[in-house]
Amino acid sequence: MINPEILDHDFPTYLKVIAEFTENELIPAENEMVEAGEVPVRLVERMAQLGLFAITIPREYGGLGWSMEQQVLLTFEFTRASCVYRSRFSTVIGLCSQAILDHGTEDQRRQLLPAMAAGTLVTAFALTEEFAGSDAGALRTTARRRGDVYVLDGSKRYITNAAWADAFVVFARTDEAEPGAAGVSAFIVDAKLPGVRTALPAIMNGHAEAPVGEIHLDGVEVPAANLLGGPEGEGKGLTMALRGINHARMHVAATCIGQATRMLEETTAHLIGRSQFGSPLSELGAVQAMLGASFAEMEAGRALAIESARAFDTGVIPRHRIAAAKLYGSEMAGRVADRCVQLLGGEGIVGPHPVPRMWRDVRALRIYEGSSPIHERNLAKAMIKQVGADGALPDSYRV
Ligand SMILES: Cc1cc2nc3c(=O)[nH]c(=O)nc-3n(C[C@H](O)[C@H](O)[C@H](O)COP(=O)(O)OP(=O)(O)OC[C@H]3O[C@@H](n4cnc5c(N)ncnc54)[C@H](O)[C@@H]3O)c2cc1C
Q1: What does CATH list as the number for 4-122?
Q2: Residue 243: predicted pLDDT
Q3: What was the pLDDT predicted at 242?
Q4: 42: alpha, beta or left, given left = phi > 0 and alpha = psi -120 to 50?
Q5: How far is CA 388 from CA 70, 109, 393, in A?
Q6: Top CATH class, 239-387
Q7: What does the CA dihedral 314, 319, 320, 324 come to, rounded to 10 degrees?
Q8: Mean pLDDT, consecutive 10-residue segments, the chain of 399 residues?
Q9: Where's the Acyl-CoA dehydrogenase/oxidase C-terminal domain (predicted)?
């Protein structure tokens, strides 16, 4: 539950609370988390108390209702710690709550959002399947209507929080005659229903302490009332997912900045303290070139994220700029991580330094929420279409 005083904080005070939580509790507990192989329960409880499950949910549904720009500023702070921590609440604040907020019926909003904001109802977003990854519209999970229920059959994989979730937003094909996106609907599925089974992978390369999981649905009877958006929601599942996906991409873009910030802080401190050839490594020109370039690229990513978030807050979702922010941010975080590992030398490979762990973690940011090649392809397609239509680029700044 959210501590009552948190609800009274103005944004600058709240931002400070989260910055202090990151510095005093999340970062110091990283090694404990790695040893335990999961985020310690007491920290998940602290996240809930401090309202981290609530930052995107409006006040009328029990959340904190911060704007996208404020959410991005918060993300810069809490992702100075391992991005694994963020995974524990990311599916609630992004993909799931935003789809319910935008497209759920009022009953669904009132029933789900307050518990999600309080951190007592953890939700996972179940879209990806073995034969439907980048091509999500090819999914094969089916939902067949039988009286007052839909019967769900199929399997999902790579689902963040599958193992911890109380409920899933599951995408399934309600129209089997329609092979593409138009035949897909979204359902809120209680994780305890008979026929639901989850499984964790044996190995994770990065994000190890917040493993993604499989969800198997075997004849699961889901009440028809759990069709997202009510009867009108049938066949609109993937359209409904879009706001949450854009929202999540914005947060991933901001996560890349938080991770780069921490890696550069840690690496610069190391370089100041370590001498070779009679002087600190930080005095070597080649080393400084890598640091300076990294700083400039990180700040470009920060500006792009803030600018896209401000545009988001005007009400028209700038999806191409958001895609660019996510693409650039995740590629930037990868370059910065690689340089930092290089600058740490053997410590970048051997031992418990946080940077090599973050290097492994940020690799996944180039794959989920749209892989980099998919963003490049989609941006190019949008450019060609828009310029062909009116000569301007998509999400154009032209006046
Ligand atoms: C840590 C993590 C968390 C995740 N969390 C979730 C979650 O919560 N919910 C969920 O539903 N899914 C989740 N996913 C799944 C994620 O969305 C998919 O991994 C992603 O969409 C890519 O699908 P795929 O892995 O099947 O790769 P594929 O679709 O097989 O693609 C593999 C690679 O091929 C290339 N490629 C594919 N298509 C094209 C194209 N048209 N043009 C150019 N290149 C292309 C890209 O380089 C791509 O990375 C998560 C994944 C990871 C790794």
Answers
A1: 1.10.540.10
A2: 78
A3: 85
A4: alpha
A5: 36, 41, 9
A6: mainly alpha
A7: 90
A8: 96 98 98 96 98 98 98 98 97 96 96 98 98 96 98 98 96 94 96 98 94 97 98 95 91 98 98 97 98 98 98 94 98 98 98 97 97 98 98 94
A9: 235-383
How high is the pLDDT of residue 209? 95
125 CB near ligand 1 (under 6 Å): yes
Output the six-digit token pair for 317. 């979702």
The CA distance from 95 to 226, in Å, is: 17
Ligand 1 nearest atom to the CA of residue 206, by list position: 1
- Given the CA of residue 207, which atom of ligand 1 is nearest to it? 1
Q: Which residues, in sequence order, are bridge partners of residue 167?
A: 123, 190
Instruction: Identify which of 368, 372, 376 to mutate to test ligand 1's pocket (most ligand atoms within 8 A of the CB).
Output: 368
Q: Token pair of 128, please?
A: 């990806």
Which residues in the chain are classed under CATH 1.20.140.10? 239-387
pLDDT at residue 282, rounded to an integer: 98
Q: How many CB atoms lie within 10 A of CB 390?
A: 9
Which residue is listed with tokens 């001498």? 275
Q: Which residues contact 10 (CB under 8 A, 6 or more apart)?
A: none
Residues 6+ away with beta carbon under 8 Å from 189: 126, 152, 167, 168, 169, 170, 196, 217, 220, 222, 226
Is the four-CA dihedral 171, 174, 177, 178 of positive or negative sign? negative
* Residues written for the chain: 399
Stretch (H or E) spanning 331: helix 319-344
Pinpoint the residues of the chain covered by CATH 1.10.540.10: 4-122
Q: How many CB atoms lie within 10 A of CB 376?
A: 15
Residues 29 and 232: their CA atoms lie apart, in Å, by 46
Q: Does the domain at residues 124-233 carry the CATH identifier 3.10.180.10?
A: no
Helix (H, G, I), strand (E, B) or coil at 205: coil
